[in-house]
Every structure is written in C-alpha cells, then in structure tokens.
Amino acid sequence: MTRPSAHVDAARLWSRHLSLARHGATAAGGVNRQALSSEEIAARRELLAIARALDLTAFTDAAGNFFLRMEGRESDLPPVLTGSHIDSQPTGGRFDGVYGVLAGIEAIEALRMACITPRRPIEVVAWMNEEGSRFAPGMMGSAAYAGAAALDPMLSITDAAGVTVGRELARMRDAFPDVPLRPLGRPLAAYLEAHIEQGPVLEQVGCSVGVVTGIQGKRTFRVTVAGEEAHAGTAPLATRKDALLAATAIIQGLSKALADPDDIVKFTVGRIEVLPNAPSVVAGRAVFSIDLRHPDSARLRALGDAIENLCAEQGRPCGVEVRELTTAMSLDFPPAIRDLLRDCAAAIGIRTLDLPSAAGHDARFMHAVCPSGMIFVPCKGGISHNEAESATASELADGARVLVDALLSLALR
User: Fold this and answer.
1) 33 within 8 A of 47, measured Cβ to Cβ
2) pLDDT in tens, 205-226
3) For residue 231, with 0-12 CB atoms within 10 Å meaning exposed, 13-18 middle and 19 or more buried, which class applies?
C-alpha cells in the first residue's frame, strides 16, 4: 500500500493558508480573526466548502467547536481526531493554529487520493476560542469538550464591548443552519495536533519536524486594583488612592520577585485597563492580566501561590483582588504516541527533533481524555503572535506527511 504521505501536495496546502488568511487580513500581512467574529464565520464557510468537496460531514457542538468527519469502515468506533484552531490574536499571523486545521484537511485529501478508507473515522476540528484574546480564558472549546471546564459559566463571559460568548455562539449557529449539533465530549481514540513551533529551535537546528514531548505549565490571573477617583489638580498626593500607580508598583514588584537569571520562569502582563481613563482624573480602578509559566509543576505552583500576597503588599493603599483564571500543570505526552510520530517520519526520510512546547495548546485538554500528541514545524525566527509570522511550504508539507501516516496508523487500530 502506498503511504498516503506521498499524496500530500505542498502547493495545495500553501494555497489554502493564503486563501484563509484573507479573512481578517491586516495591512501588515497578518491576521485579526478573533473568536466567534464575523471573520471567523467567513473562514469557517471556506473550510466548509473544502470539506464538502471532499465528501466530509460537518457538525458542531454546544461549545462552538467545528468538526469535519471522514467516515471509516466501522463508523461506530470512536474517531481519531486532529486539528487546532482558526481564531487569532489581534495582530496574529497566517499559520498559528490554522496550520493544524489545514494539515488535517490535507491529510484527509491525501487519504482520498490514495483510495484508503481507514477502519476508524478521522475528524478534523477547529476548536472554539483557543487564543483567549477576545474572550478570556483561552482554549474554551477544548476545555468544555474534555470536561475540564463547565460550558454554562463560559456563556456569560464578555469581550471588551460587553458582548457575551453565549450571544456569539448563537450567532455562529445561525450562520450555519444546515450544520448539525452533536454532543460535547464524544469518546475519542486519539488526538494529534500539528502546529508551528512558535519558537526558534527547529529552525536553528535545521529540522523540519519536531516531536513534542509535552507542554509546560501555565497559570493565569486577573488582578483588580480598587482606588479612588479624584481631581488631578486638587487632590493632595498624600491622600490619593491612585489605582494606576498601585498597579504599576505591583507589576514592577512581581517582575522583581519572579526574576529568573536562567530565563525559565516566564512572567507576562499583556493587558491593562484603567478607569475612568481620563487625563485629569486620578485612576479609580485598574485591571491587568498575569500569565505565568514554568515547566516544573511544583515550581509553578509555588510561584503562583505567592502572587496574591505580593499583590496585596505592593498595592497599598488601594484594595487588590486576585482571581486565578486558569491552572494547568506541566504534562508529558504518551511515549507510544511520540514513538509513532518518530517512526512515521523516519519511514519517509524526515529527521525529527524531540522538544517540549513552551506555549499552551488544545492538546493539553485532549491529553486527559485520550492518547494525544503534537507535531511542530518551524516558523521563521521563532516569531509568532505577530503579523511577521512566517513558514515555508516545504516544511508545512513535511509536517502534514508525518501527520497523515500517523493518523492512518491510529485509525487502522
């Protein structure tokens, strides 16, 4: 039997990336296609057209995850699932997330061209709100699917304009009235996710495919600083409760306390909101995000547990509330899945490198419900979450070749 990887078409896969990047395209060559937006609706329409040309069945679920299914010889068996996401950061690139979805579609097209029908069904998924840029936290769709987070509380979460997840999920369903709804949490045989590395390692060593060993841990927090609004020209400095000054003092204090000369601890404040945000008013309220990561779960737990006290100490005389949004400890993918990916790559002459993922992915939640793994391909300069994000057609194709052979192996079991 000819390996389906022989039918992966680099030009076709590349062309689909460029075409999908039109939805939410930015002037600087990137993508702004945030979760449940009109741009994402347009991108799903394009995916649906591709799927129907390949005779795939499309469906969704209550969390807004979008599935494309290739039937197997025994369609009652739990499917093998692959995919990623198509939502982006506000100044995102053309490959982050989208590659995993398009590589999955390319894998199915290669199987069709090889005239292979696997034993199990194979499904491609675009998870809802992986990025968390419009609605926080991220990875909502996969978390709801895996039962790691309840869906109902997600529905009332709002974006910066006060629009709820629930309202936008309803709008997404209305946009696709002929796409049926299926239950959340259907059993799965396995999950594979292809993704750009979002780091520089593969490019530096000249390797086109990475076998991901696991995902480093992450804790995210929302800090609310409550001060008191006052007149900028008349309020004495000694009596002010300036929420913005307190917030910046907290951020600087955390930065010093979490400083790591080995550059293993990753501490980021990526968003800050100030109210009333007026030039002549002392800030009465400030809200900011904390993203904390470390590959060692015990160390991550200790660092995160210290945040609340550090915020309270640095925020005086203002009141400070710290709310943890997500807690995800480090994980290792199953050795059997990693071995399969290495073997599939070696069989077609592709050299691989084992490496961990420093970024979070939907595979984190799938890991808890079925054997899961990830494939990385290089991105230029390791740049991601940036309009300058770039990859090469040949390396995207190499990842898809490994993916399709691994999917077939899993789907024949």
Assistant:
1) no
2) 999 999 999 999 999 999 999 9
3) exposed
State which H helix or E strand residue 127 sits in: strand 122-127
Say whether pLDDT at 1 is over 80: no
Nearest to 61 by CA among 130, 120, 125: 125
The overall average pLDDT reported for the chain is 97
Closest alpha carbon to 110 in 131, 124, 125: 124
The single residue listed with the structure tokens 């309803």 is 170
Closest CA to 331 of 218, 192, 210: 218
Q: Which CATH number is 217-328 given?
A: 3.30.70.360
Same fold, 4-216+330-411 and 217-328: no
Give the DSSP letter string of 249-261: HHHHHHHHHT--T
Q: How far apart are CA 120 and CA 137, in angstroms?
A: 33
Kindly list the domain boundaries of the chain, sorted by start residue: 4-216+330-411, 217-328
Q: 366 pLDDT exceeds 80?
A: yes
* Residue 240 structure tokens: 């002010």
DSSP single-letter state for residue 361: -
pLDDT band at 99 (very low <50, low <70, confident <90, very high): very high
How does residue 175 score in pLDDT terms, banded at 50, 70 and 90? very high
CB atoms inside a 10 Å sphere around CB 248? 17
d(CA 409, CA 199): 29
- The answer to whether the beta carbons of residues 214 and 363 sit under 8 Å apart is no
Q: Identify the pLDDT of residue 287.
A: 98
CATH topology of domain 4-216+330-411: Aminopeptidase (3.40.630)
- What is the DSSP pairing of strand 190-196 with strand 372-377? parallel
Q: What is the pLDDT of residue 2?
A: 79
Mean pLDDT of 66-91: 98
Contacts of 71 (CB under 8 A, 6+ apart): 57, 117, 121
